[in-house]
Amino acid sequence: MHFFPSETCLLIEGFCAQNSSPGFCFKFLDLISTA
């Protein structure tokens, strides 16, 4: 699990839903979590 502010989570979830690319979404989350 990643620990982000709730607003950031909502933005990421909204972006992923619109992007409709789960693989990209998970890579994006991994990049943020390791940054």
Outline the structure in words:
The chain has 35 residues and is an all-alpha fold. The protein is built from two helices and no strands. It is flat. The mean pLDDT is 69.
Number of strands: 0
Backbone shape: flat
Biggest beta sheet summary:
none
Quote the distance from N terminus to C terminus: 15 Å
State the helicity in percent bands: over 70%
What sequence of helices (H) and strands (E) makes up the elements?
Answer: HH
Oligomeric form:
single chain
- The fraction of residues assigned to DSSP E strands is under 5%
Low-confidence runs: none
CA-atom Rg in angstroms = 9 Å
Any key phrases for this structure?
35 residues, mainly alpha, 2 helices, 0% strand
Topology:
Elements: H1 6-19, H2 22-34
Helix pairs in contact: 1-2
Summarize the structure.
The chain has helices at residues 6-19, 22-34. With 35 residues, it is an all-alpha fold.
